[in-house]
Specification:
The chain is of the alpha/beta class. It has one domain: TIM Barrel (Alpha-Beta Barrel), CATH 3.20.20.150. Helix content is about 40%, strand content about 15%. The radius of gyration is 18 Å and the shape is globular. The protein starts with a strand and ends in an 8-residue tail after the last helix. One of its GO terms (molecular function) is isomerase activity. This is Sugar phosphate isomerase/epimerase.
């Protein structure tokens, strides 16, 4: 049994929070991962723009459609090489942590970034120095999360210093806090050469640090010219039934985000997951 979630910016043509609420309800979903700047690019949503009233307005309008913000996105390059830019980005994330509760969110989410100004694949991310830098930054953000009473949700990926299950374990050992959680996206950690082992990867993750997994991204994919390309759920190679069963076993009612599944394809994804989902022995 899963708490299925969609990203607000996977719904096309949404210009107001009322439209976001209505379109989410129309899809039969109750949970949103909300990236303010992506869903509402014309609305200021920087470090100094968030405020309790904004959060309350979003929460109120979404609640009328029986929808809530489960995850507030603040994806930044938290190890940006320019110190001034990095400081602005970290202050933005800290602002999101302070105000997330007004939106009703359970956590603020980000990937870890890149040693280069633009996030991209580089082996320079894989050095011990880059990882040590990252640990220091996450310690700072987690301290802010503790002060705000908010989870910091960190998403690993191959384009980042947090590029493997082993690095995740090292991070969790270095930053011990109940306010640090992992948003696990298995598609972010596979390549065209090893994607056949995706289910084993998920099993290993839950065995290694399942207690720290606070949400899962379920992102289908295909392989083209040696690259992993996201597609709507059910159109690619992800073994969604096996992965959903693992999540339901270890983390019943966990937030599972249908990342990159868009518009009318969301309903089809819900049908696929509903048909494959193992039913729990408990009742709500």
């Amino acid at each position: 049994m899963l708490n299925l979630t969609i990203r607000g910016h996977d719904l096309s043509g949404v210009k107001t929070v009322q439209e976001l609420a209505g379109q989410t309800k129309k899809q039969g979903v109750h949970n949103l991962q909300l990236a303010l700047g992506m869903s509402f690019p014309d609305m200021p949503s920087g470090a100094g723009n968030l405020n309790p009233g904004m959060g309350a307005a979003f929460k109120r309008e979404l609640a009328r459609a029986d929808v809530q913000v489960s995850i507030l996105s603040c994806y930044i390059n938290m190890i940006h090489p320019d110190p001034e830019i990095r400081e602005r980005l970290l202050q933005k994330f800290e602002g999101y942590l302070r105000h997330a509760r007004h939106f009703g969110a359970a956590m603020v989410a980000s990937e870890t970034g890149c040693v280069l100004p633009e996030i991209q694949y580089t082996e320079d991310n894989f050095t011990d120095a880059a990882f040590a830098d990252l640990v220091g930054v996450i310690r700072r953000l987690v301290k802010a999360g503790e002060e705000a009473g908010m989870l910091v949700g960190i998403e690993p990926g191959l384009n980042h210093p947090l590029y493997s299950l082993e690095r995740v374990e090292q991070l969790l050992a270095a930053v011990e806090s109940d306010h640090l959680g992992i948003i696990f996206d298995p598609t972010n950690l596979i390549t065209s050469e090893d994607h056949q082992h995706q289910v084993a990867l998920v099993e290993r993750a839950f065995d290694s640090f399942g207690d720290k997994i606070v949400a899962v991204h379920l992102k289908d994919f295909k392989v083209e010219a040696g690259q992993i390309i996201p597609v709507n759920l059910g159109e690619g190679l992800i073994d969604y039934a096996a992965i959903a069963a693992i999540i339901a076993k270890h983390k019943p009612l966990s937030y599972v985000v249908l990342e990159e599944t868009k518009d009318g394809h969301i309903g089809e994804a819900l049908k696929l997951l509903g048909a494959s989902e193992a039913r729990p022995s408990f009742h709500l």
